[in-house]
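MmcQ/YjbR family DNA-binding protein structure dump, as promised
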Amino acid sequence: MLSREEFEAYCFALPHTTHVVQWGNASVFKIGGKIFAIYSRWDTEDKDIISFKASDDSFRILPEQTGIAPAKYLARAKWVQVNEDAGWSAEDFHAYIENAYKIVFAKLPKKVKDTL
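structure tokens r here:
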């Protein structure tokens, strides 16, 4: 599992990202004003959670694995949440976070993309 610091360092390294802390100290990363990844701790879980936008295939397959579930409040938009029980490496997280970034960037209006 990535630490919050590792998560933030990776997300900040992606071009044109912005960061805000909201929803009870969640670390929220955006591209063009749209969220692509979140690091949080839900009181009901007592575990750190990384949530991100998933591709259609990933959203269908990932929640079948231990430590991964449709993301609270964001599942309808095909987001998943991953906790330490998934046993993911940093490389696994990096690949999915980068993919989330690309998915969200691709859906931005042309006018927004042109300003980045």
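Strands lie at 17-22, 26-31, 34-41, 48-53, 68-70, 79-83.
lmk if u need the other ones
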